[in-house]
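Worked example

This section walks through a single chain of length 178. The input is the sequence exactly as stored; nothing has been trimmed or padded.
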Amino acid sequence: MMISTHTITSIALAGAVVSIAYNFGYTIDKELLQFIIPSILLGTAFPDIDEPESWIGRRTRGISDLIKIIFGHRGITHTLIFILVFTLILIAINIFYGEKHFFLSIFGFAFGMLGHIIGDAHTKSGIMLFYPFSKKRYYVLPKFLRFKTGGIKEQIFALFYSAIIMVEITYIFQKGTI
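Given that input, the structure is written out below as tokens.
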């Protein structure tokens, strides 16, 4: 999946969470958003650090080359265990520094990584959600709807999720809480 589609997917998922929160009476303040949104976007790109030709891989050459050699693309960085371990490491760092805004960023980063692997579960390649314990591939869509990265189906998928984002934005602003 292309970085633009990953971004759209994660924003749509975040919008769904915010919309559900509003339905239960919670509001999201601007201070929270200014830390969470950038970290969601960075977290969304991060799992592709295992692909040297990806947006983040081109910015971390050497590291991304090494990760791809050891684990391959859509290996360890596209798993729940990676998200959990990486998030726990960041939380441990946060405990040492005790910074409230860093904790909010950790949450957003983890959410973005989760959005990324959910996005990749829409593709023909799917994801090995529990790698290295299992190499079983998981998918979100039925086989006939899965798409190849960069193909026309991915573009249609991105348009569909963009429309969802527009509905979410309309809903959130109608609530008048942001």
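What to look for: Residues 3-14+29-171 form one domain.
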